[in-house]
Amino acid sequence: MKVKFTQDRVVLDGLEGTDEETRFEAGKVYDLPVTSADRWIQRGIAVLVDDGASEESEEPGAESGEITHVGGGYYELPDGRRVRGKDAALAALGE
Fold this sequence. Notes:
Number of domains: 2
Distance between the termini: 27 Å
Order of helices and strands: EEEEHEEEEH
Helix content: 10-25%
Shape: elongated
Strand content: 25-35%
Radius of gyration: 15 Å
Strand order of the largest sheet: 4-1-5
């Protein structure tokens, strides 16, 4: 699953601070296992990247205030944020 990090992060696995640490840089896209990607997305550190569309392209519903299903149980809000689950997307839309 491809995600784009919104913040720089280092994985705290005992290797941080060494040449073998795992580092994610803000603005870069990484292809991660689904469980790892989900964890970063839920923490607000990364966002799901849609392989089929340019990051600058407009998604259907972006101007109409609707949520758009983008696959894998994720929905995109009109402001570009992606959340997992329709109920969570509808709740975020109401904020």
